[in-house]
Every structure is written in structure tokens, then in C-alpha cells.
Amino acid sequence: MDRRSFIRSSLSVAIAASLPGAHALALSLVHAPTSVPADIDAITGDGAEITLPRAAVQELSDSLKGKLLLPGGEAYDQARWLLQSRYDKYPAFIVQPTGAADVQNAVTFARENNLLLAVKCGGHSAAGKSSCDKGMQIDLSQLRNARVDRAAKTARIAGGSLLGELDHEAMAHGLVTTAGSVSHTGVGGLTLGGGFGRLGRRFGMSIDNVLEMDVVTPDGKFRRVGPESDPDLYWALRGGGGNFGVVTSFLFQLHEMQRDVVTGYIAYPLSEARQVLNFHAEYSQKVPDEMSIGASIGGRLGDDPGVGLSFIWSGDPARAEKYIEPLRKAGTVVFESIQTMDYVAVQRSGDIDDTRAFTGYMKSGFIKSISGDLVDAVVDNFEAHPDRATRFIFTHSGGAIGRVGNSETAFAHRDADYGLLSFVSWKTGEDGNEHTKYINSHWSNVEPFTSGFYVNDQFDQPQEMVSTTYRENFPRLLKIKQTYDPTNLFRLNANIRPS
């Protein structure tokens, strides 16, 4: 331990020893940094192999209030875990910050050593980019807190928090904001990519409700960004993904809403898929912002495939039936489940069904409108298979999402009223090449109807597709990337590669 660390630790012990309950309190006040036993083999962002001196890594560990984790321990394995089991990566070491200062120290160390750097919030990255092999992972799981200001209708959310924490704390005050659809999703990843959710049509995307952010940029500086402070960075962070730094805190605008919402699912025979999807294409354009309707074809592994409509009504429950009844006329109803539920419970209802938790593969794209030709392409190329589960899902945008201009935030698909997700899964441990080839083949038939991809849902994110998915916003994003991250320290994302 160096002299400054020794003095700091000794002073903490001395202060603690003078207080009541000295022994227990002293132990709680003194941080015991990880002992780094040897030099560490690692890689740079460009993939070059390097060796980090033991003393340098020890100095980083000593500087942290949080933890530095090395391979071999249970805490390390929990921290590197990602929701998608296909990704099994082993960082050279992991930093678990407890505040912005720890994030600054970790980012500075990564920059000075040109380390490959990954940032994990909830571990939901569809592309597996919240961990890495032989680089540094910053795991934000110890940086979680949600604090609501009822009078201002805002919530201050720590950067490693999960959506369930935001929903729970806000709804306790009769307030909500758009926050995904799976409670164990990380607030950071969801929001930086755009942030869809069950309330998006009514209250806008997550990024439309971010008033300001605290972010550690690649130079290791702490910045509070908003419309009046670093406005270009504020613009870029709202949809530009993890390209620009680590957000340690979000300030969200909240909205008044009753706890109870009406939600449901209605199923129809697979033989009526074309009819039901065409109905959805027309009817979903007519409903008010309080209603969001999704359509799907396919099923889970082991189930017979079918076609279904799912919805949530967040307005006055007494008005719900007026908009639900037409759904029963879309086809022959073979199953119906409609109920009034607590909104927070609805947000948790998909936790065990999240497609990213299954061994599988997914493609995504944005759609301005659902044409008859697109419906034909989806239905005609659908193939049931006993060893795989295939689902094609139309998500519902529009409403408040579409009343923001394409260039007002970095997210560039405001004109899309729908998203299309194509997902295939198979039993863990089995070879999925056949199934992946199928979904890619199917996607080739529907891709001409789509534009770009949603960075939070796309498994493959080839560089050549990134500029097209950001559309007319890409030149501005590239300029901001070159200003704040010219060495591309934050590259494990839908990467805006600086020239």
C-alpha cells in the first residue's frame, strides 16, 4: 500500500476508534481494497495484448470506494453475467463503482491504458456488449437508487438502477414515466438507446422524459448535461447509445396516472394470421394514445403457434371496453385473458418471458406503416418447427413518440408507427445454426419494408448499418463522438466510429 493510502486508512481507523461501538464501526468505515497478486494480461480496444503492472491495478483498487473484482471469485462471476447465455465473457477485471468518483477513476484508468472497456447496467445487451474478454468491465450494479420529488414530479435515478425501482418508487406517488416492459432491465441501457415502453404512446419515449443527466465522459470528467449545459452531448445521449460515456444519474419527468390499467391478450388460429394482422394494421391507427396494441405470430418452444393481439389501456378503466371490443372481431377468438391490474405488476409480468433470456437470435427494424404486402411476407414465410420457437412481433409506436421530430433527439425513427421483431429460440446446448439461418432467410423477405434497427434489441450491429440506422442524425453524432471520444474508448455499443 502506498503512503497516502496508508495515512488515509490509518486516519479512518483512528476516528472510528474514538467513537462508541468503535470496533464494529471501524471495520465498517475502512475500505479493504482487493489485493492484486500479480501483473494482469489484458487487451486494448484495438485487440492488442498488453500486460498491466500489478502496482498500477493495485493503485486503481486502492482509489475505489467500491470493489475491484478479479477472476476466480463468486462475486466476479455474478458481475460478468449477462442475460443472454450465449455470451460467456471473462474480463481481465471488473470495477463495481458506488458513485461517480469511482466511475471517473475507472474510466481514466481505461483511457490511460487504452483498455477495452465494457459498461454493464442490467446485463440485457442483446448484442452482448456489456461485458468483454480480457478488458475492463464497469459493473454498475452497486449504483442503484430512486428518489422521487412529488411536488416537482421528477425522479432522480442512479445510473445502475433497474426499471422496477423507478416504477415502484414513482407509482407510490401516483406518478409514472415510460420505462420499458421488463422490470430487471437497466435504466441506463434502455434510456440511452431510446427507451420504448407500455406508456410510450401516451408519454413519449424514455429519452423524451430525461431532463438532465450526470455523465462521466471519456476524458474522466464529470458533467451534468441538459438543454442549457453541454446541449450537444445532451442531444446525443438521448438515443446515441453508450458511445459518449457512463451516465451515473438520470433526472426523469414524471406524469400523473392511476395505479390500475387494463391489459390483455386475445389469441386466434394460425390460419387466420393474415386477417388478424391486417386488422391490427388498420385498427391500431385509430386508437387513442392511452392504448398500445401489439400483434404477434408464432409461439413459445413446445407450444402450437398462433396469432395474437396484446394490449394495454392506461386511461380511465371505465372507457377501456369501447376500444377492446373491436379486437374480438379481428378473427375467431380461441383464447382471451383481459384483466385490470396494478401497473407495477404489469411491468413485472414479462420478467420471466423476456426473449433475451432465451438461447436465440433476434433481428429488428422500424416500419412506417404495415402494408398488405408486408403482412404477406411475414405470413407466407412463416414455418413452424418442433425444435424451435419462432415469433414475429409488431410493436406499436406513434402517439406522443411521433410528435417529436426525427432530429430533435439522436433517435431518428419518430416517423415509424411500428417496430418489427423477428426472434427464434431453441433449447440451450443445441446447435442453433439451422434456426439462425431460418430467421435470417425470413428477415430477408421483410427487411425491404423496414428502416434501420433498434440498438437495444439488435443482436448483430455491423458497422455499415450504424450510420444508416441513425439516418440524417449520423453526421452530427459523428462530430460529437469525435469531440468527446476521439480514441473510441466507448466502442462496445452500436458504435459511431470516429474517423
Fold topology:
Blueprint: H1 3-17, H2 22-29, E1 40-43, E2 49-52, H3 54-63, E3 67-69, H4 74-80, E4 93-96, H5 100-112, E5 117-120, E6 136-139, E7 146-149, E8 154-158, H6 163-171, E9 175-176, H7 187-193, H8 200-203, E10 210-216, E11 222-225, H9 231-237, E12 246-253, E13 255-256, E14 260-268, H10 273-283, E15 291-298, E16 306-313, H11 320-324, E17 335-342, H12 343-348, E18 360-367, H13 372-380, E19 389-396, E20 418-425, H14 433-446, H15 463-469, H16 474-484
Parallel strand pairs: 4-6, 5-6
Antiparallel strand pairs: 1-2, 3-4, 7-8, 8-12, 9-13, 10-11, 10-12, 14-16, 14-17, 15-16, 15-19, 18-20, 19-20
Task: Explain what the structure shows.
The protein has 499 residues and is of the alpha+beta class. The protein folds into 4 domains: 1-30; 31-142, Uridine Diphospho-n-acetylenolpyruvylglucosamine Reductase, domain 2, CATH 3.30.43; 146-256 and 468-484, Uridine Diphospho-n-acetylenolpyruvylglucosamine Reductase, domain 3 (2-Layer Sandwich); 260-463, Vanillyl-alcohol Oxidase, Chain A, domain 3. 29% of the residues lie in helices and 22% in strands. It has 16 helices and 20 strands. Strands 17-14-16-15-19-20-18 form a 7-stranded antiparallel sheet. Strand 15 (291-298) and strand 16 form a beta hairpin. Helix 1 packs antiparallel against helix 2 and helix 10 (273-283) packs antiparallel against helix 13. The longest helix has 15 residues, at 3-17. The chain is globular and about 70 Å long. It starts with a helix and ends in a 15-residue tail after the last helix. The model is unreliable at 1-30 (pLDDT under 50).
